[in-house]
Amino acid sequence: MKADLIIKNIDNLITLRGPNRARVKEEMREIDLIKNGIIAIKGDKIIYVGEDKLPKDIQTDGNTIFIDGKGKTVTPGLVDSHTHLVHGGSREHELAMKLKGAGYLEILEAGGGIHSTVKATREATFDELYRKAKKSLDRMLGYGVTTVEAKSGYGLDDFNTEIKQMEVAKKLNEDHHVDIVSTFMGAHAIPSSYKDNPRKFIDLIIGEMIPEVEKKKLAKFCDVFCEKGVFTVEDSREILEAGLKHGLLPKVHADEIESLGGAELAAEVGCITADHLVAASDKGIGMMAEKGVIANLLPATSFNLQTGKFAKAKKMIEEGVPVALSTDYNPGSCPTENMQLVMSFASIIMKLTPEEVITAATINGAASLKLEDKIGSIEPGKKADLTIFDAPNLDYIIYHFGINHTDKVIKNGEIAFERFSNIL
Ligand code: NIG
Ligand code: FE
């Protein structure tokens, strides 16, 4: 077989080879590190992974591209499995409020927060949303991310805006190197016009929006913000179960600020992921472990909310909950596209080892999007989605924090990003 692209002499090749499912407990530390590694790619697939040299049955010719991996660390392309990629406007004015001690839910309750982004997103045209989201997606790719999840949720009862957001995600998925997986999150806040009658809004989501999302094939997942003053556990259960009936897999923003029982709900409904979980109860964590619900943790959000509270990531791993990591990129609680910073926070603040971190940011992220059989590890048959870091080892990427270590990103077998300077 002839290879189109070879990466050789890789100082540290982290393959994450193993079962095509979210990894748990000590599996999260088994990253399969190959020294002096070599990878062969044909088309958009990996055809060989090993040490030193290619076997005889893999040939090269004048058209084969060679990349030298000396001094580099190569990992599967990073997966950012929780973002609010498509939205209008920004919320830097909330910084001053937060510095004065205003809480996230307080700002939301006062009609700011998500509501101000809802206004900006409703007012934005398709092209404006597309251009803004594309800029973020370019940035994400630059940080080594090859697959991104994108939620709606800034249209709320204005269903056309919800659809507009999902159609922007769909078009970007077609146009951009990075793959986008779409999530319908109409249940992101109670719209002002339904403040006194949230039941009516829930009926609208269940009766009209979810069936239409299914019909138009706009999303793979359904998500709900289960939080005090937003959607109750019972509201969330109803919405997620309605989504399931219409082929949308459940995810939930659970126990982000208050301990409501979101983790328990995620286990009962059979959510693919429960996200945030800063205030998750021990019982909820145990139930998630039993049901194999992935904990999608978002430490950059905790950092930005200035509460000093982070999810109990170590305990979750010990208890057997598979852990994933994401940016939660959004204009309010987490305005950053930088997955590498999230990885550093996960280690420096939440105390995950670099091995647990890279597992959480690759194969467990892939499983969070139900793509574990296609991406998330470097092995023959999987998509050729790889990140080449200008770093001598994995620990270095996490330790030297806040900067971008990406040298090149290979997406679907092509060089999708290449750094042009050594001092970035
Ligand atoms: O995941 N918590 C709810 N949703 C987002 C924030 C969205 C926003 O503030 O605009 C989150 O943190
Ligand atoms: Fe979120």
Textual characterization of the structure:
With 424 residues, the chain is α/β, with parallel strands linked by helices. It has 2 domains: 5-75 and 377-418, Urease, subunit C, domain 1 (Roll); 79-368, TIM Barrel. Helices cover 35% and strands 22% of the residues. The chain contains 15 helices and 16 strands. The chain has helices at residues 93-99, 104-109, 114-123, 126-142, 159-175, 198-215, 233-245, 262-269, 282-291, 299-305, 313-319, 339-348, 354-361, 363-368, 394-399; strands at residues 5-14, 33-42, 45-51, 65-68, 73-76, 78-80, 145-151, 179-187, 221-226, 249-254, 273-276, 294-297, 323-325, 386-389, 406-411, 414-418. Strands 1, 2, 3, 4, 5, 14, 15 and 16 form an 8-stranded mixed β-sheet that branches. Strand 9, helix 7 (233-245) and strand 10 (249-254) form a beta-alpha-beta unit. The longest helix has 18 residues, at 198-215. The radius of gyration is 21 Å and the shape is globular. N-(iminomethyl)-L-glutamic acid (NIG) binds at residues 84, 113-114, 117, 225, 253, 256, 301, 328, 330-333.
